[in-house]
C-alpha cells in the first residue's frame, strides 16, 4: 500500500487545453495555502507597488502641470515685454539746435517739437513692428489723391517722371508754395505713406510734386540703361527745374524720406543756385553716410543683416524687371557676368558693387558711396533744415546719428529731432492697438513747414517796412536765418 503524500499546490496542467472554469479554479487554489492564508505572488506584489506609485504620481500631475503653465506664461510675458519694449517711456523728441531767433520761434510756435509722441500701446514701442508695418502696409485707410504724371526727357536718354498734385485750398500765409518730395529707396508716388503725406499736405494748402525714382514705377519701361542710385540728383533736379519754370512765383519746400533725404540734401548742397526760392528742407530717417550705413548692414545687431537681405532681394527683383533695358547688347557697361553675380547677391553692397556703381562709372563701391553721400555736401545747405530720426530705427545705426547731432550743434540753420520710438518711417500714433491714419511724421513735417512759412512771411514784412516802395520778389527771400 502506497503511503499518502500531503497535497501540494496543484500545477496547471500543460498537456491539455483547459476550460475557463478550470483555469479560474486553479488560480483560486494557488491563492490560498496552509489553512487558507492569503499569499501574494511576486508578480502581484510588483503590480500592487506599481499601482500605488501611479496613484501617487497621478495626484502630483495637476500641480506639476500648473507649474509648467505658469512658467510658460511667465516666459511668454517676458518675451512680449522685452521684444515689444513695453516698459520704454514715451516723451517728446530730443531736439538739438543752436540758440537763434529762428530756433526760439520754432520751439514756441511748432507744438509737435515739444509734444509727447505716443505710439500705439501694445506694439508701437517696437521699432521692428513699426518698420514692418510701414513696409508691408504703409498706412491705414490710405487716401487716393488725384494728380497728373509728368514725363521729362533727360540728356542721356532716360525719362524722369513725377506726379503733380494741386493744393486743395489756400495756404495760411496766402503764398503759392510747392513741396518737392523725394521718396525712399525704390519708391514712388503710389506708395501708401507718400499718398497719405501728400493728401495731408494738399489739405494744408501745399502743391506737391513727387519724384518717381527711375525704374521704380511698375509697368513703365526704362528708356536708357540706367536706374536710380543712392545719391544721383539728376531726376530730382529736373523735377525742381520744371516746377520753377511752370510756377515762377511759387516757393519751394524740399522733403526727403530715407534714401530720398540723402538725395534732397545732396541736391541742395551741390550748388548754391539749387537753394534759390527754397524756404526749407525736411528729411526723415536718412542715414547720411552711405559707406557707414552699408558697413552696419552686415551686423546682426537689431537684425540689420536680415533687413539687408530683404532690401537686397527687393532691389534685385526691381533690377531684373528691367533686364532687357539694362543688360541689352552694346547698351550698357553691365555684362552677363555681372548678371550672374547679381543673382548670387545677398546684400545691397554686393548689388551696388556689381551693378549700381557702374551706371555712373565709379571705379569702386567705396568711391561710389563716398561721392553719393550727402555728408559731403550737407554743410553747404544754408536754408532752414530739419533732420528727423528715430532711436529705434533698425536700419539706421546709432553711430550715424552723431552726424546730424554735430551739424545741429555747429550750424545755426540746422535742427535735429530724435524720437524714442517710430522705427523706420513708421511713426504710427494710436491708443492701444489700432493706429491712426495720419502719423506723427506727417504732422510734424507739415507743422514745421507751416511755422517756417510764417517766419519767412514775417521776415518779408520786416524787410518791406525797412525799404518803402520796394517789393521783394520770391527769389529775394532771405535764405540764411
Overview of the molecule:
Helix content is 41%, strand content 12%. The protein has 481 residues and is α/β, with parallel strands linked by helices. The strands form 2 sheets. A 9-stranded mixed sheet has the order 3-11-10-9-8-6-7-5-4, sandwiched between helices. The protein is globular. The protein starts with 19 loop residues before the first helix and ends in a 15-residue tail after the last helix. The model is unreliable at 1-15, 32-38 and 470-481 (pLDDT under 50).
H/E order of the elements? HEEHEHHEEEHEHEHEHHHHHHEHEH
Our Rg estimate from Cα atoms comes to 37 Å
Structural class by helix and strand composition:
alpha/beta
| Helical content (DSSP H or I, runs of 4+) | 40-55%
How much of the sequence lies in strands comes to 5-15%
Characterize the overall form: globular
Total of DSSP H or I helical runs spanning 4+ residues? 15
Largest sheet: 9 strands, mixed
**Terminal Cα span:** 140 Å
Average pLDDT over all residues: 86
Strand order of the largest sheet: 3-11-10-9-8-6-7-5-4
Poorly predicted regions are: 1-15, 32-38, 470-481
Q: State the total count of DSSP E strands.
A: 11
Amino acid at each position: 500500500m502506497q503511503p499518502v503524500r500531503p497535497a501540494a499546490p496543484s500545477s496547471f496542467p500543460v498537456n491539455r487545453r483547459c476550460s475557463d472554469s478550470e483555469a479560474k479554479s486553479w488560480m483560486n487554489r494557488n491563492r490560498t495555502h496552509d489553512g487558507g492564508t492569503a499569499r501574494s505572488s511576486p508578480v502581484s506584489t510588483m503590480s500592487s507597488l506599481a499601482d500605488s506609485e501611479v496613484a501617487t504620481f497621478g495626484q502630483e500631475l495637476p500641480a506639476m502641470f500648473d507649474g509648467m503653465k505658469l512658467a510658460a506664461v511667465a516666459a511668454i510675458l517676458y518675451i512680449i515685454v522685452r521684444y515689444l519694449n513695453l516698459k520704454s517711456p514715451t516723451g517728446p523728441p530730443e531736439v538739438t539746435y543752436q540758440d537763434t531767433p529762428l530756433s526760439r520761434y520754432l520751439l514756441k510756435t511748432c507744438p509737435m517739437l515739444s509734444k509727447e509722441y505716443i505710439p500705439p500701446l501694445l506694439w508701437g514701442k517696437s521699432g521692428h513692428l513699426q518698420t514692418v508695418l510701414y513696409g508691408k502696409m504703409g498706412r491705414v485707410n490710405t487716401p487716393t489723391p488725384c494728380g497728373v504724371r509728368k514725363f521729362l526727357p533727360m540728356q542721356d536718354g532716360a525719362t524722369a517722371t513725377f506726379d503733380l498734385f494741386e493744393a486743395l485750398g489756400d495756404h495760411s500765409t496766402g503764398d503759392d508754395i510747392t513741396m518737392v518730395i523725394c521718396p525712399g529707396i525704390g519708391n514712388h508716388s503710389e506708395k501708401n505713406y507718400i499718398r497719405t503725406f501728400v493728401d495731408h499736405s494738399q489739405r494744408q494748402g501745399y502743391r506737391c510734386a513727387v519724384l518717381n525714382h527711375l525704374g521704380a514705377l511698375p509697368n513703365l519701361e526704362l528708356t536708357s540703361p540706367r536706374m536710380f542710385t543712392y545719391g544721383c540728383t539728376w531726376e530730382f533736379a529736373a523735377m525742381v527745374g520744371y516746377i520753377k519754370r511752370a510756377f515762377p512765383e511759387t516757393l519751394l519746400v524740399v522733403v526727403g524720406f530715407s534714401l530720398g533725404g540723402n538725395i534732397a540734401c545732396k541736391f541742395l548742397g551741390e550748388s548754391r543756385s539749387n537753394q534759390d526760392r527754397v524756404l526749407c528742407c525736411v528729411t526723415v530717417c536718412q542715414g547720411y553716410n552711405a559707406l557707414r550705413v552699408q558697413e552696419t548692414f552686415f551686423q546682426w545687431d537689431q537684425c540689420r543683416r536680415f533687413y539687408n537681405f530683404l532690401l537686397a532681394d527687393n532691389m534685385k527683383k526691381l533690377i531684373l524687371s528691367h533686364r532687357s533695358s539694362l543688360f541689352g547688347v552694346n547698351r550698357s557697361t553691365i555684362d552677363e557676368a555681372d548678371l550672374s553675380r547679381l543673382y548670387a547677391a545677398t546684400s545691397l553692397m554686393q548689388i551696388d558693387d556689381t551693378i549700381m556703381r557702374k551706371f555712373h562709372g565709379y571705379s569702386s563701391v567705396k568711391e561710389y558711396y563716398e561721392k553719393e553721400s550727402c555728408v559731403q555736401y550737407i554743410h553747404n545747405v544754408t536754408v532752414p533744415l530739419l533732420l528727423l530720426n528715430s532711436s529705434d530705427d533698425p536700419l539706421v545705426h546709432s553711430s550715424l546719428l552723431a552726424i546730424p547731432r554735430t551739424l545741429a550743434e555747429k550750424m545755426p540753420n540746422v535742427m535735429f529731432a530724435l524720437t524714442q520710438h517710430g522705427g523706420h518711417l513708421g511713426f504710427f500714433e494710436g491708443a492701444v492697438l489700432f493706429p491712426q491714419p495720419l502719423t506723427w511724421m506727417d504732422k510734424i513735417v507739415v507743422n514745421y513747414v507751416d511755422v517756417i512759412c510764417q517766419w519767412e512771411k514775417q521776415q518779408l514784412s520786416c524787410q518791406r517796412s525797412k525799404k518803402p516802395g520796394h517789393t521783394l520778389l520770391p527769389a529775394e527771400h532771405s535764405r540764411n536765418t
